[in-house]
Hints:
Strands 1, 2, 3, 4, 5, 6, 7 and 8 form an eight-stranded antiparallel β-sheet that branches. The chain has one domain: 3-methyladenine DNA Glycosylase, Chain A. The protein contains six helices and eight strands; from the N terminus they run H-H-E-E-H-E-E-E-H-H-H-E-E-E. It is α+β, with helices and mostly antiparallel strands. It binds a DNA duplex through strand 3, strand 4 and helix 6. One of its GO terms (biological process) is base-excision repair.
Amino acid sequence: xxxxxxxxxxxxxxxxxxxxxxxxxxxxxxxxxxxxxxxxxxxxxxxxxxxxxxxxxxxxxxxxxxxxxxxxxxxxxxxxxxxxxxxxxxxxxxxxxxxxxxxxxxxxxxxxxxxxxxxxxxxxxxxxxxxxxxxxxxxxxxxxxxxxxxxxxxxxxxxxxxxxxxxxxxxxxxxxxxxxxxxxxxxxxxxxxxxxxxxxxx
DNA sequence: AGTAGGATAAACT
DNA sequence: GTTTATCCTACTT
Length: 202
């Protein structure tokens, strides 16, 4: 079951929490790369100094976030890593959820190849975890880059599906990598699946 | 287990 | 010219 537009048409905090356990799918040439989401972060409104759109900043790359919910926002950080976000909330209300980590479900060979240029069987235990345990890593594993910025997640190619009802507890804590964000750096806006090996930072 | 530094380019000032 | 929602490697304890 693909998640409907309404799922995304809410505040980022709710969407971030409920995205845990959902499955992110990227179809390439008929091949499915899929990952169960285990860690997310909410970036919520103009008061949030950690967000690109803080203070109501509205530049060309941010237009998608000011648009309709259920679209992707993909950007490049540190000149080499992509970050995948889901746009939430209504038009002109900038909110988004960063997908920070997941566990591979489908297309493991392709992921191993993209991340390490090795077959899955050649990977060490650490490398298997390293496939998708971070925002930049998961984008490399799932072949997500800026060409997918603005993609409709209710369309074809890149979308999210309902997961398999696995039970887990949600840990709520501070976000990662936003030390510049003054008081916002301590906001409890990161969520992850308790005990999951693929979580980027415990 | 922790700390340090470098890679590397788009976006923004 | 500065900053950056990261990752990897190497070195120290």
